[in-house]
Design brief:
The complex is a heterodimer of chains A (82) and B (497). Chain A has 82 residues and is an all-alpha fold. Chain A has four helices and no strands. In chain B, strand 22 and strand 23 form a beta hairpin. Classes of the chains: A mainly alpha (82), B alpha/beta (497). Chains A and B meet through helix 2 of A and helix 9 of B.
Amino acid sequence: MADNTTKIRTFIFDNFLFDAEEDALENDTSFLEQGIIDSTGVLELVDWLEEEFAISVADEELVPENLDSVNLLSAYITRKTS
Amino acid sequence: MQQYDVIHSFLHQSALSHPEKIALIQKEEKVSYEELAERAEQISQWLLHHDLQPGERVAILTDDACEYVAAYFGILAAGGIAIGLNTQTSNHALSSVLADSGSCIVLSQQKFQKYASVIMAQASVRHFETTIRSLWEHGIRSEPKPLPRIHSEDIAQIIYTSGTTGAPKGVMLSHRNLAANTQSTVGYLGLTERDTIMAVLPFFYSYGNSVLLTHIAAGGTLVVNQSFLYPNVILEQMAAEAVTGFSGVPSSFAILLNRSSVREYSFPKLRYLTQAGAPMSPALAANLSAVFPEVKIFIMYGQTEAGPRLSFLEPERVVDKAGSIGKAIPGVTLTVCRPDGSEVEVGELGEIVATGDNIMAGYWQQPEETATVLKKGKLWTGDLARVDQDGFLFIESRKSDMIKSGSHRIGPKEIEDAIMEFSSIHEVAVVGHKDDILGEKIVAFLVVKEGCDASEKELLRHCRRNLPSFKVPHTIIFENELPKTATGKIQKTELKK
């Protein structure tokens, strides 16, 4: 779980937050509310999830409850891989 | 619908006709027409008590649609010129638009407090208000000031174009420009107070602005969710609010068709889809018709400089005139002209030239730029098109998009349409890259659909089968995504580098 969180944070910083400070993103910060990711960014995120964790993200799973923060993503990955 | 020539009359009339009707829905908040008109009136009074003079510019910087709409109409009624700022901004972008427009007041929200030093550093800015809601919640307690008389030729709004090419330009639109375009659009879409639109496009750009004005004028309801992050959330809202319409750009429809559960939903009330912002490929239009068989699809064309609508393709012609942008909307005349201004023959390539009450007053403080596109009262759009024997317009490309390869002048659109017919392609953009021998070579940037494969060899084979040899791309580059402006237009200038 902690390992997933680190991976997710690295991905978000590398792709969307770039040079921001480490404390610019809390693990429960909403990507939507804070405007961190845009609509094509979500598709990028999904590509990465599928490749990195060898999971398949169904269209109906593209909802904020699964994807909208580091913690939600981490829990989603755990559910998909367990 | 009664004719009005100032924009804020649309809101006042709808508030008088059906005060309790819901105008805006945003998350849990539902705002009636009466409430919206009252909020706008409070903002007008606040502006007048802060010495707003007619013609002064007031910028709006908020991602709260309820705030935006009340501020927009409040500014207009108070005699100001409204400037909707892109909320995805930076210090540089913000200061350049504020400096160019000479805005004196910025109406915003708390989350943009971080820009306070940039905003207040502008010589023209005398007030930065970060709680728009407090302007109507607390109101002005002193004696109301009389509203100024607004004339139809007064400038209502300056829209900064998204800058697909070059530096941003402020497009000045008068009340008459916007009123004429709004009334024409309401007419051909057949909008009434029974319509409810899913509004996903930001209001600070011309397409979203048109969606806002047309539905307020018709007395309809706007369900607003301007982040297209989770398409299924939008679909849920569309179903829950029983929307009758949806307006998007091609990428909105591409995402809905390729990366959402759209096929699992039914939308019994949905009656119209509108698409503008860029041409829709015939393949995407056909897919959309298959998913929404009973829904009217309006392919539309326009420019911010035209307030914005110029033409539409009647839904009944989407199949037999696939790829066309249709004909001029009521009140607009479109001709396709040679550089000397004479009209082209059927099938001959020329530039689309527009006249009508909707054509902009000019670019803000840029008379030379204005003179390059407004000539003798006509707007030279820079879009190259052909007219068929039935009078339907087919855009080939922007003038600047033309690829000169060998002795050929090649519009990229035909190549893009051919590539889009290849079933595994999500998006494509074709541009010219410098080439020592040809002048320019044809380069196709592609995004492949989720879970699909496409090899360069297969694609070239497909192109060779469907295109004359000089139009077959010289290079194919696969990308994860294409660079886009905030309105979803592909930034070809980025791909040309």
